[in-house]
Amino acid sequence: MRKSKFTEEQIIKVLKEVDAGAKVQDVVRRLGITETTFYRWKSKYGGLEVSDAKRLRALEDENRKLKTLVADLTLDKQALQHLLGKKW
To answer: In terms of CB atoms within 10 Å, which of 17, 67, 74, 83 comes out highest?
Structure first.
């Protein structure tokens, strides 16, 4: 996945700026992003505080690690079943 040039903290700051009354078109033009990107940010980070975003990132990292662990264990299990399932 492509890494964004904006951090979660910066994204939340931009969303709060628009909530405070700035026009979306002006903010989008200043940042050099599309309106689609802005509204995608709004759907993901809308209503979050900076601390919530940090916790969300930590949970996503932990989830990714757990998925990798489960995938590795599943591969090991399938390999063992394949080897032990054959008759000698």
So the answer is: 17
